[in-house]
Every structure is written in C-alpha cells, then in structure tokens.
Amino acid sequence: MGIISTKYLLLDAQAKGYAVPAFNIHNAETIQAILEVCHEMRSPVILAGTPGTFKHIAFDEIYALCEAYSNTYDMPLALHLDHHESLADISRKVDAGVRSAMIDGSHFPFADNVKLVKSVVDFCHLHDCSVEAELGRLGGVEDDMDVDEESAFLTDPQEARRFVEQTGVDSLAVAIGTAHGLYTKRPKIDFQRLAEIREVVNIPLVLHGASDVPDEFVRRTIELGVCKVNVATELKIAFADAVKKWFADNPEGNDPRYYMRVGMDAMKEVVRSKITVCGSQNRLLLPAEV
Ligand SMILES: [Zn+2]
C-alpha cells in the first residue's frame, strides 16, 4: 500500500456517480479516527493538510504517519495538499512523495491564476501528481485564509471551460455558494450554475466548504458532477465538543488516551455520515486498480 494520486480515485467516482470525501487532518488521532471508519466502510479517502497543518506537524512526519497507516489499514491513501499557494512549496512536497495537490490562485485575476496553475500542472504531471485548482472564490474562514463576503465570487461557466483548457488541471474547485467554516444562515447553492459548469467542463469537480451544508444539497451537487467533497470544520467541532464534555464530566482527568478517544469517537460519527452522503462506501479501489 502507499500514497497515491487522487486522479484515479476521482475518475472512478466520476464514472460511477459518487464522491470521494476529503477530510482535513491535524495529528495521529484525527488520521486514525478517519481511517478506522474508512476501513470499516471500505471507502476511498483523501486526507488533506493545509499549509497551516504542516506548521503544526512537519510534512515529513505527517507523510510518514500516512504511509504507516496505509499499511496498518491495508488501504492506499491520497495525502492531499489543500489550499497551497506556491509552486516552490508544492514541488518540495511532491519531491518528498505526495501525489495530490491543490494550487489555490483563486485570489488572482484570471490570467495570473492560469499562469500559476499551469506551472504547477507542468511540474506535477512529471511526477504522477494530480492537481486541483479553484476558480471563483469561496467566502469564509479556513486556517490562515479569511475571505469576506465582498471578495467572494461565484465561478463563471465559460471562464471555467477556458481555465481547464488552458491549464490542463485534473480537477476544479467551484464556487457555487458554499463557504469555509460554519454558516450564519442556510447556504444558497447555485445548482443551475453547477449544471452549466458541468456541461462545458468534463473533469471532476470539487466542493469546498461542505461542513454544515444539508445532506440533500451535497447529494444534489454529486448528481451534478461533484466528485470530491471537502469536510474540515464539522470534524473539529465534533472532536472538540466531545472533549469539552468529557472534561466537564471528569474535571480531574488528564490521560489523553481517554479524552482523545472520546473526541475520536465523536469525529468518527461525522466521518461515517459524510461517507454515506458521498455514496463512497464499498468503493475502495485495490492497488491493481489505482
Ligand atoms: Zn477549501
């Protein structure tokens, strides 16, 4: 087993009409909680780390953990660079073994975004590393990113077509009304826009900001071509709430083996429900297929 490209996972999802869940990880416990469920449900999975993740725990350490867990759980794993912003940072991690990267140039004008993404695609494709990019811009907060409502804008279908043609990117994150973090009001997803993008773009589409989005909305986006669903915030909240409750019930407690386990168990419930929404159970690809 080992660390694989996301490309094969997403193309299988696209062909069969489900989505691969991408969960953000932070440490051994969060990886373990995710993989315990994926192993049990036979679901493919993408483990995602932002640049902030690799400030908390060094890339080499996360990579070694993922390799080890891939053997423990007997599953190929995609370790994905989420919201990375430079070719230098991505190329260093690809040289160290990663095979799935997002280059986020969504804050740049179209031509600059194309130029940056193309340079990353040219490098990554020499190393069997799949590349995701974003066109349009999601609002909300994730790690060091904080995009206010005015700076957020939705993906234009015709621009998306040109963007994919000009960059050769493998998957495209679209802005259709979701946001990073929690929603202050019920999200308004522009399904019509997603359908129009799907008509002119044939690579797998990615939904960011899927925490806190009603299940039926996520399912509808998968029917309309989303093949990767990103979940971060909901996992953190489940973990933290369970640990807070444990300490409230056990004010003298101090053993991480106990309080981490209740956090992991709470997080596992969210992972289980997201896999069900994605329809990815029993879709695990064997090494010969990836
Ligand atoms: Zn995101």
UniProtKB/TrEMBL annotation:
GO terms assigned for molecular function: tagatose-bisphosphate aldolase activity; zinc ion binding
Stored Gene3D superfamilies: Aldolase class I
An annotated GO cellular component: cytosol
Cofactor: Zn(2+)
GO biological process, one term: carbohydrate metabolic process
Residues where dihydroxyacetone phosphate binds: 181, 209-211, 230-233
Cofactor info, note text: Binds 2 Zn(2+) ions per subunit. One is catalytic and the other provides a structural contribution.
A Pfam family annotated for this UniProt entry: F_bP_aldolase
Enzyme nomenclature, EC number: 4.1.2.40
Binding site for Zn(2+) 1: 83, 180, 208
Keywords (A to Z) from UniProt: Lyase, Metal-binding, Zinc
Keyword Metal-binding attributed: yes
The protein's name: tagatose-bisphosphate aldolase
Species the sequence originates in: Yokenella regensburgei
Chain's gene name: kbaY
